[in-house]
Specification:
The complex is a heterodimer of chains A (155) and B (578).
Chain A: H1 3-17, H2 19-23, H3 47-51, H4 60-69, H5 76-97, H6 129-134, E1 139-140, E2 143-147, H7 151-154
Antiparallel strand pairs in A: 1-2
Helix pairs in contact in A: 1-4
Chain B: H1 4-12, H2 23-28, H3 31-40, H4 55-58, H5 69-79, H6 81-90, E1 94-105, H7 144-156, E2 160-161, E3 164-165, E4 168-171, E5 181-184, E6 191-199, E7 208-220, E8 224-225, H8 228-234, E9 238-242, E10 249-255, H9 262-279, E11 291-301, E12 311-314, H10 319-338, E13 348-353, E14 358-364, E15 374-375, E16 382-383, H11 386-395, H12 400-410, H13 414-422, H14 424-435, H15 440-458, H16 469-480, H17 486-499, H18 503-509, H19 518-531, H20 533-540, H21 547-557, H22 564-577
Parallel strand pairs in B: 12-13
Antiparallel strand pairs in B: 1-10, 1-11, 2-6, 3-16, 4-5, 4-15, 6-7, 7-10, 8-9, 11-12, 13-14
Classes of the chains: A mainly alpha (155), B alpha+beta (578).
The structure holds zinc ion (ZN).
Organism (chain A): Ceratopteris richardii (Triangle waterfern)
Enzyme class (chain A): ligase
InterPro entries (chain A): Asp/Glu-ADT_sf_sub_c, GatC
């Protein structure tokens, strides 16, 4: 199994699950929601709610949907391999949902960041820039070379 | 699996001083490497649905503005000949609803979340570090200046400052932002519910407007795709990325859909530019892309409550392009209504084409974009003290609208008010000239006339010249009290602009004091008349026009220093008396 692809899929699972549901204790209201006239959509809507039950049956079409969100292509064999793994993950989330958090205050994130001070606006060039840039998979002169992007947007 | 050794190589290549602070953060950040590999391997990437920050590449598609404008007229005339006939009757029946999202690049010294310099025009990929490259294990730390600038703009727009706002990740799958997401603010922006006030140009009908501001939020810019534009033609399968701009701080200002015409929208953008320049938080330069406007346009029958289908327009890099793009789009939508083809107005993003002067389909929006916002776990909430907001509030300069109201109250015409208050440095200079005691109207005229012409000619700003406000006030006073003539004044002004110093010292050093002594003038008149007996004869026989000739001779003889009023008086006395 392609580890990179698995990681991508896992990440997408997190996204689809919806941040507020994932990081907030059950039964607490999601944080204040910004109502705006722009078309914004929080991840906690639509798709996520369908996954919230531990008994949800994860279908191949769900795997494909996740793959699309992760911008990766999966072979039918890979879809087959992913399906039980993802089903298992949903089970774990289901277990998490059962934890009693009535006495725990709602939080947007793991609150171990403390009161980190802001940074002064003073430039400090990164010393190992060359070493870092040398690790870029492919370069062209001073540029990072990547497959043509935005093709479908511009043509 | 071929990529994995590379992953390890990248991790190993991190400097030894580079600390992975917490296993939690690491687990949150597998994406950057993944996305790099995805980008490396085209077979992995599926069709990318969307580029939110696509504007950075779009600007490179522009043709030179103006060059092909005349062609457009012809084009539209043939293209829409049927609709233009009825447009005159159709347009007044409809109303456009326009909302604008503006990205303002902040002029901080460093990026939003790392200490990389953020200057424009540096060697490609020179200002990068693990944070803005999105390498695993690093922690972004917010630049204090970004908060300061956001609060300043929020206050200037009369918005409510949220004392406890937060950052979110907005999913973004392009190589110009290697993290795979953009750090932005989603449900709790730093400021919300403001408004902007502006005065429309007098020559275009004038009028005062107030438009609502929905929200202002902080976010990071993407890098630049250098060859995206060229690729279209060359067919090269690659793009080049410069990540210097990745992570540079932006403020996104979202307006209410309050504008109704292309002019109002362009003036909204111009006022926002003025505001950020007054505040000193951005250069607001549209050509360089430091200020980018995405416009949403829909039309509805007048009286209808319901909004029509909204179309987004991108790729406008000047206010006039904005106005033309919007007016084109309004006409396009209205004529579709007129032809009974309203269903052809679809939710899409259209690009403004400067060359053909029209909007073209860039992509359809199939359903709403799924950004999957996610609270940014690496950054704590942005908690601001009330005292900090108060401090920012008291540090605000006089804002453009306040300035215009003050100038208006002083008795300047709206036309003059708009010119003088347009540029912060000009208005500051003007105010200082007044403080130094100059006459209001004269000071305004000198600044809008000779000084503006000089600056334009020399491609300079008022800050680049050596003229001080005090020297200009002194010069104006010397002309007013007859010490020098207006004509000499213009010469002295050029010296002051070039070399500086005081008006008085230049006048004295160059011997330019106006000749206002009647006896001296009389002697000069006598001399000129004596030298031109033929013309004197002709004058006396009725050719009165020759007074101008004598005046010219006297001006020439005195090097322009002779007091024109006294000169004419004495000249007439001599010519008619003797
Ligand atoms: Zn950096």
């Amino acid at each position: 199994m392609h580890i990179l692809r698995e990681m991508m899929m896992l990440r997408e699972m997190m996204m689809l699950r919806g941040s507020s549901k994932l990081l907030l204790p059950i039964g607490t209201a999601p944080p204040r929601h910004w109502s705006t006239k722009r078309h914004m959509q929080c991840c906690s809507s639509s798709s996520s709610s369908s996954f919230s039950s531990p008994h949800y049956k994860f279908e191949p079409s769900d795997v494909l949907q996740l793959a699309e969100k992760a911008s990766i292509k999966l072979t039918p064999k890979e879809v087959e391999e992913f399906q039980p793994k993802l089903q298992q993950l949903i089970g774990w989330f289901g277990q998490l949902q059962e934890v009693d958090l009535d006495s725990v205050l709602p939080a947007l994130r793991a609150d171990n960041l403390g009161h980190r001070p802001l940074r002064e606006d003073v430039p400090i060039p990164f010393k190992d820039r060359d070493a870092m840039f040398a690790a870029v998979p492919e370069v062209e002169g001073p540029f990072v070379k990547v497959p043509k992007i935005l093709k479908e947007n511009l043509e | 699996m071929g990529e994995l050794p590379l992953c390890q190589r990248m991790l190993l290549s991190l400097p030894s001083s580079f600390r992975v602070s917490h296993s939690y953060w690491r687990s949150q950040r597998p994406l950057p490497l993944l996305s790099l590999h995805l980008l490396r391997n085209p077979s992995l990437t599926s069709a990318s649905p969307f580029s939110l920050l696509g504007y950075c590449h779009l600007s490179s598609l522009n043709a030179a503005p103006g060059v092909r404008r005349s062609k457009f007229r012809a084009h539209v005339a043939t293209d829409e000949v049927r609709s233009t006939v009825s447009m005159d009757t159709l347009l007044p029946q409809f109303e456009a609803v326009i909302g604008i999202e503006t990205h303002v690049q902040l002029s901080t010294d460093t990026k939003a979340f790392c200490s990389c310099p953020s200057q424009y025009g540096a060697e490609p990929n020179s200002n990068i570090c693990p944070i803005c490259m999105g390498l695993p294990g690093c922690l972004p730390v917010l630049n204090a200046k970004v908060v300061e600038y956001a609060v300043k703009l929020g206050l200037a727009l009369g918005a409510k400052i949220n004392l406890d706002s937060k950052f979110d990740r907005k999913q973004y799958f392009y190589a110009d932002l290697p993290k795979g997401y953009q750090i932005s603010q989603f449900d709790i922006p730093i400021a919300s519910n403001g408004s902007i006030e502006l005065d429309l140009p007098v020559e275009l009908g004038g009028g005062h407007r107030r438009f609502g501001i929905t929200r202002i939020h902080m976010e990071e810019d993407a890098g630049k795709l250098v060859h995206a534009g060229g690729d279209r033609l060359s067919g090269s399968p690659y793009s080049q990325v410069d990540l210097n701009r990745a992570g540079v701080p932006l403020l996104e200002v979202v307006s209410e859909p309050d504008m109704r015409t292309g002019l109002e929208a362009a003036e909204y953008a111009a006022e926002l530019q003025r505001l950020v320049r007054y505040l000193g938080i951005s250069n607001g330069n549209m050509q360089e892309g430091s200020m980018r406007c995405d416009v949403n346009v829909s039309v509805r029958k007048k009286g209808d409550e319901k909004f029509g289908t909204k179309v987004e327009i991108k790729n406008m890099n000047s206010f006039s392009a904005m106005q033309r793009a919007i007016d084109f789009e309004i006409s396009r939508q209205v004529s579709l209504h007129g032809e009974g083809q309203a269903s052809k107005i679809v939710q899409e993003t259209r690009l403004w084409e400067e060359g053909s002067q029209r909007t073209i389909t860039m992509r359809l929006k199939e359903g709403l974009a799924d950004y999957r916002y996610f609270p940014e776990p690496d950054l704590p909430n942005v908690v601001i003290e009330k005292a900090f907001v108060d401090e920012m509030c008291s540090s605000l300069p006089e804002l453009p609208n306040e300035k215009r109201r003050r100038y208006e109250g002083m008795g300047l015409s709206m036309q003059d008010v708009l010119i003088l208050a347009n540029d912060y440095d000009i208005s500051r200079f003007f105010d200082e000239v007044l403080t130094a005691g100059a006459d209001l109207k004269l000071a305004a005229n000198w600044i809008m006339g000779d000084i503006a012409a000089y600056l334009k000619n020399e491609k300079m700003t008022v800050n680049d010249v050596n003229l001080t406000p005090e020297a200009l006030a002194e010069l104006i006073l010397m002309i007013q009290n007859g010490t020098i003539s207006g004509k000499i004044g213009k010469e002295v002004l050029v010296d002051l602009l070039r070399e500086g110093g005081s008006a008085k010292s230049i006048v004295e050093a160059k011997g330019l004091l106006q000749i206002s002594d009647p006896l001296t003038i009389a002697a000069m008149v006598d001399k000129v008349l004596a030298e031109n007996p033929k013309q004197v004869e002709e004058y006396k026989s009725g050719k009165k026009k020759l007074q101008g000739f004598f005046g010219g001779q006297l001006m020439k003889a005195s090097g322009g220093k002779i007091n024109p009023t006294l000169m004419n008086k004495i000249l007439l006395e001599k010519l008619n008396g003797n």
